[in-house]
UniProtKB/TrEMBL annotation:
GO terms for cellular component: cytoplasm. Its cofactor is pyridoxal 5'-phosphate. Coiled coil: none annotated. GO terms for molecular function: carboxy-lyase activity; pyridoxal phosphate binding. Keywords: Decarboxylase, Lyase, Pyridoxal phosphate. GO terms for biological process: amino acid metabolic process; carboxylic acid metabolic process. The modification N6-(pyridoxal phosphate)lysine is found at K317. The keyword Cytoplasm does not apply. This is Tyrosine decarboxylase. It comes from Oryza nivara.
Amino acid sequence: MGSLPLDALQPLDPDTFAADSSAVVDFLAGYYRDVDKYPVRAADLEPGRLRRLLPEAAPEFGEPAERILADVRRDVLPGLTHWQSPSFFAYFPMNASAAGFAGEMLSVGLNVVPFMWVASPAAVELEAVVVDWMARLVGLPDRFLFSGSGGCGGGGGGGVLQGSTCEAVVCTLAAARDRALGRIGHEGIVKLVVYASDQTHATFQKGARLVGITPANFRVVPTAAASGYALTGAAVRAAVEGDVARGLVPLYLCATVGTTGIGAVDPVRELGEVARRHGMWLHVDAAYAGSAAICPEYQGYLDGAELADSVSMNPHKWFLTNMDCCCLWVASPAALTAALSTDPEYLKNAGGGKPQAAAGAGAIDYKDWQISLSRRFRAMKLWFVLRRYGAAGMRAHIRRHVAMAEWFERAVSADERFEVVAKRRFSLVCFRLRGGGGGGDAMNRELLAAVNASGRAFMTHFVVEGKFVIRLAVDGAMTEMRHVGDAWELVQRTAEQLLQRR
């Protein structure tokens, strides 16, 4: 299809829509067939490369989709790190799937904005259904369910789909802050303290700053190998009691199930008891490992969740739901909406009154559960994944990755040159070449750099107790056992070459 003349521009012409969409689908199908042929990490890391390739200004007239896709293939793909490569073992995954893509197409294609019930009733109600489905799948207590509380927004619990954990954290911190300030007065904000571990994601420090908590009142509680790098109730209790003695007010405690660095699991029940004793908001961050809780053998890691005020997990990480999608459940939606709600005249129904008054007490205005006003129809995407693969299929998906990580862990342990640094609980293996001191760290840095430079695999690192650790996260939708085996052979061969040179 050629360029479109100005007087013929019809942005949603069904025939053009079908032709352009088909061209994109064909392009992506070819990309996924060949994705393992690309260097996993961006082949060209020179800053400014793409700017030099592209024109300085947008085109005056429209161009055919085929020409645009040809430029994507020639100019864009070489500068991408291929997150869907079966040899991508870095960070945590951002899983894609055929069902996730189909759900995303429906979401984007329908392009509704369900910020209020009246703005798209079915989209809002589908979201409430889907977050309840997910809560049951991961074994959350009924207090986090809409249906377990006498109806949507009826004074019990409920859930919302955010874009990321970062958004969920800011929202829950704001709710905790306002709940506390309602007791102690707004001038008391300088006394509020947030607690997390040295393994907790940096998102929580960022979120605390955004809601007005002074950085001096963010407590990073140390962890140690003896506890599996998990927070302990005793350590938190000591930090809290010290702050209370100084006249400060404990506000918020984060318990993580599957930390980013090494996959550590904090004891939710133990921390929940400390939080209850001191009136703190307890948030359970299960962004990565929450997906594993659909398997009964992993639900024990969420034991004590009934003591939490909020729980979050990211289906876009390990649950085959394309970016972006974060489930946030709260025990008290009223606490969240009290901090985040707005009610301007232009958002009221034309007939007068709020949607809840017009549609019944069960209607939800999700604009009051999030930072922004506008929002995407994320529920369609997650619903499509759940419908297409089912709970049994998703459990098989999780267990397959765990089995591959178990194999890698055994292989590392069997090679006396290497050590597994932290206990593997899910599909993340943390390892390093043996050797103490700075020399050992330098050697491991060199090993990781060489592995990544090969283009055959991509891994990332973490530093724990001063040790440089290599992380291998087995979570790719296209990853098979042969890819994990190839990665281990690459690590061994590269390490041998490094050791021979020393």
